[in-house]
Request: fold
Amino acid sequence: MKRNIVSLVIGVSFLVILVTGILMYFQPFQTPIAALHTTFGLLFLIGALFHIWNNLKPLKKYATDRKSKLVLSKPFLSIIPVLCAIAYFTYFGIFGFNSIYDWGNKYRSQQLGKELISKDFEFITLTKPIGDYTIELEGKKGDSFKYPMFAAWAEDTLGNYIKTVYVSNTIGTSIYAFKKGVKGQHIIRRPSGLPVWAHRRNIIAEDGLMIPLGKAPDLDGYTGATPLKDFVIQSQTDLDQYSAINIFFEVNQSYDWNEYYSKDRFPNDSIYTKLGQSGQPSLVFGTRIDFRSLKNKKSYVLRPMGHGHHSGANGTLYKDLTNITTAFNIVERFIITIYDKKSLK
Reply:
């Protein structure tokens, strides 16, 4: 192809790519702008290939060095590691190389009234549960997030327990992978872990505690890994016999003492003092889901409802949250989304 035509195609394509690239960086996504950027990017690529073909000899001279014994020229060899380093740092986000990209995403989201959240989510899918409804529990970890335990369950509108839809493996079996730094399967009983869920479930274990001991038939398929970062837990259930339900999510974390819930706060409570790890009590979040309005509203924010007993002595949901501090920062927010099979088609 003639050099002048190739040069014009490359020049015009570069200008269009430049302008549309700037627009795409500062403005929310628009299909016409993106289409122009993609089309002229392809034209630029084709033009570049013809440019390389038309200038193959001089490009070879730039890349080689006849005077030295090197196969490739020193300028060519020096630029390759620099470009590779830039690509590596940008791809993995090292030394803030992707900060420009992140700022653009945040700026565009603000124009739409959205909050940019991390894409680094941990997805936990419970494969055994079956039913007509898919439940997604999304959580964004907070500043105090350190190996918490979770349980989510459903109740009818009268407060009657229906079923568990997710529980962390550790509290759902009392089997832990570590005990005082020693690896292996260890049975550790923590009645103060998630007492509201445990008492609502209302099944007494062999040792008289309400939390499960070993595998429990009613929790088969609903126990899953404990998330270690921002997470989405996906489960399924059959709840079509209810017009509305209440969904609760209980979270707790050991060793998170504060000024009120100190190590010596309850000296006569053997569980709280002897275990020495209770800290602040569990927090319970909840919301009501109306199945009759799923077409219009599928996502719900779970709000703080109260806390459990500090040592798990009962399943009361205490509404006074005055003495709870950093426990609120374990998870920054909970969102539940529920779909039926029809809406997923």
Observations:
- Residues 252 and 282 are 4 Å apart (CA to CA).
